[in-house]
Amino acid sequence: MKKGTPLRLTIEDLSFPAQGLARCDDRLFQIDGFFPGETVAGSFGGSKKRRARLYRPVLVEARADALKPACEHFGPCGGCISQHLPLATQRSFKHRVVLELLKQADLDLPAEILLYGLSQKYDYRNKMEFNFGNVELDGPLTLGMYQKNHGFNVINTTGCRLVDQDMRRIHNYTIDYFRRLGIPFYRWSSREGVLRHLVIRHAKFGRELMVILVTTTQQPIDLSEWVEGLKKLPLRDKLVSVWHMENDSIANIVQSDRMNLLDGKETITEFIHGLRFEITPQSFFQTNSASAELLYSRVLDKMVDVDLALDLYSGTGTITQLIAKKAKRVIGVELVEEAVQAASASARKNQVGNVKFIAGDVKDIVADFTGKVDLIVVDPPRAGLIKAVDHIRRIAPARIIYVSCNPKTLAIDLAQMTEYTIEQLELIDLFPNTPHVETVVLMSRVKD
């Protein structure tokens, strides 16, 4: 088969995270963002070891249960991939691909593995990182998500339905403002330009908003007028914190060389299960507040007879303080210093006195830890536990609760913990319309 040959393929199966699988001429095509029962068209993009690529795939025949997406950007935008599917269908596919991944790791899994999730499909995210860019060369400035299958093209997501109306209004005001000023966006290829990202954080239960503008320092920029315009927006909730983050790194990520508070206070306040949490610009907090309550309830339900618990990758101390309700003592460990400070402050405000927070790399802290531990709770980043897994095994807690956002690295970590049996495993859908899903695993140490 020659490159460029037109093809029409029907998706037959699915692999993680959301790669539709189709076969043609003894080749397996892996096509991002398409689902079993859909038919796609494109051109042959070449193959390697019998795995083939379909170039510029487009949907030509939908599933029988397909819905009309609520978002005007669905399709070209790479932010969502499954808005057109009912929630039940989305969740059945998530359940299927995660279980397949775990079975491939030859794990001894429980007989029953359930998936939990709330009914809210739209407007649920409490944090969004929008990119500055354009859709076409020398086109107008855009702000939003990357275009599907088009490299670094940025769709101007004025009507994004992953976020609520307040966050959309901030987005739309910001793109209009900087278009008028003509300030260039940062181009990764030439490493020139100013505007990089707009980050919006929203405490849904606390009803507070934070805005962070990320730029390089290649050009002086007066943001006072932009801030005053933000403060005049007709928002449902209150804008209480505006930051300017300076970032001259090469990497295409939101990271800080320097933080400048432009207006308001340093944090926003969120409430989960009746506890108060201070969210800083860079601290980790689950991006769906309502579903986070469901997730943490599932964690709490798995706790019994705990004297000392360790909460690793503790972020702003959410899990640490919640599990303190069912443990005599809890130690939270987190790399980000500002998150540890915020966690300590919120614990004092919540009058949770049986917790302690340590700032440092998890693998280094647990490497030096001694003493009896009843429970370790881990909620690591997408890379998983990596080197920390061996130290956790050495500590040998009676039980481990593993909260994972990446089933691939979860499978790798679980396969190494041969001293433990998997008692419970369940999925929590915090991220409708996307391929992402949380997994909660309860493990018990096998008695010698």
What does this protein look like?
The structure is a single chain. The chain is of the alpha/beta class and 448 residues long. It folds into 3 domains: 6-64, OB fold (Dihydrolipoamide Acetyltransferase, E2P) (Beta Barrel), CATH 2.40.50.140; 89-120 and 288-445, Rossmann fold, CATH 3.40.50.150; 127-271, OB fold (Dihydrolipoamide Acetyltransferase, E2P), CATH 2.40.50. 22% of the residues lie in helices and 33% in strands. The chain has helices at 87-104, 165-181, 224-231, 289-300, 318-323, 337-349, 362-367, 388-395, 407-416, and strands at residues 6-10, 13-15, 19-24, 27-32, 39-48, 51-61, 115-117, 127-133, 142-146, 154-156, 195-203, 208-215, 238-246, 258-264, 268-272, 275-279, 306-312, 327-334, 355-359, 375-378, 399-404, 420-429, 438-445. The protein is globular, with a radius of gyration of 23 Å. The N and C termini lie far apart (58 Å).
Strand sequence of the main sheet, in spatial order? 7-22-23-21-20-17-18-19
Helix content: 10-25%
Q: What is the H level of CATH, i.e. the homologous superfamily of the largest domain?
A: Vaccinia Virus protein VP39
Query: What's the number of structural domains?
Result: 3
Which class best fits the helix and strand makeup? alpha/beta
Distance between the termini: 58 Å
